[in-house]
Amino acid sequence: MNDTTSFIFKVLRDSLFFKDLPTDVLTSLAEIAILKEYEKNEEIFYEGEKALGFFVILDGFVKIYKISSKGKEQIIHIFGAGEIFAEVVLAGLKAYPANAKALTQAKLAFFEKNRFLNLIQRNPQMALVIIGVFAHRLKNLLQIIENLTLREAHERLLSYLWDLSGYGSSDKIKLNISKSQLALLLGITPETLSRIFQKFKEEGLLEIKQRELRLINLDKWKSLIKTLT
């Protein structure tokens, strides 16, 4: 196993989706991966582009987004190390349904669709991984719909920060994206986001030092989160 394959193997082994696979299957998976590197703000693919495979993030952050006919951007999701995106190609889509861009310098493992499907035929347990990925993605999409249609702006930020904290397992949070990108992700204006952050500070819920955040009074946070469910 060369250095690149070994690096990909380690990320897959630590990934939520692949960690339970046997070592030999993980090795086979790492061996068919193609390492791709992107600069910050470099496009990975565009909506409508021919979909040849999917990606696992080895390092960095990637955003999936759509652009409206009027040029308005809506971020659908932001992914980090160990996460999968563009897996919809495995459901038979011929073209990517959204755009993907590197938010930071990023290293990705690219899996060509046909080679991956051949691997599944030899290792059926891989199919369970993909079912798990689709189930996880469906849950995320339902949460996005709920946030954008049923929740007020401050509730969206409240829920997002709670998720980042590991549902209260830590009171410290580091934002890995800019506030402008966060505003797009939450479907609100940067001005509104700034006002909400200030409101949370004034209410004694949050301390902010640039991108370093600290949740204050976790019991109060838990109480507020309960009102959202």
TrEMBL record:
Residue ranges occupied by any HTH crp-type domain in the UniProt entry: 151-219
GO cellular component: cytosol
Keyword Transcription listed: yes
Entry keywords, A to Z: DNA-binding, Transcription, Transcription regulation
GO molecular function terms attached to this record: DNA binding; DNA-binding transcription factor activity
Residue ranges of every copy of the Cyclic nucleotide-binding domain listed in the record: 17-137
UniProt protein name: Crp/Fnr family transcriptional regulator
